[in-house]
Amino acid sequence: MKNTSSWTSLLTMTLLLFTSFALSVCSSSVQTKKSGTTQNSPCIDSTKIDLNGPCIMIYAPVCGCNNVTYDNECLATRSGVLRWKEGKCK
């Protein structure tokens, strides 16, 4: 039982570190071109971050607006990402 607790702690810490890194890399807004003007729009909503929420572990990569590749839409959503496109980031 102790071994399971260690793995859970390690996984939790890894997810927290990954999220911290992703948030530090991502600026608070993404510059998008729309009708010739630049518009600020948020990329990450920190109120939507839920690293303990359930996700089916199917590999269907998406590229978040923060230019981070997530294994699927659910994992991007759990990380607070508001927009993504199908496929890996380039």
TrEMBL record:
Domain Kazal-like: 37-90
Source species, domain of life: Bacteria
Signal peptide range in chain numbering: 1-24
Pfam families in alphabetical order: Kazal_1
InterPro entries, per database record: Kazal_dom, Kazal_dom_sf
Keywords of the record: Signal
Record-given protein name: Kazal-type serine protease inhibitor domain-containing protein
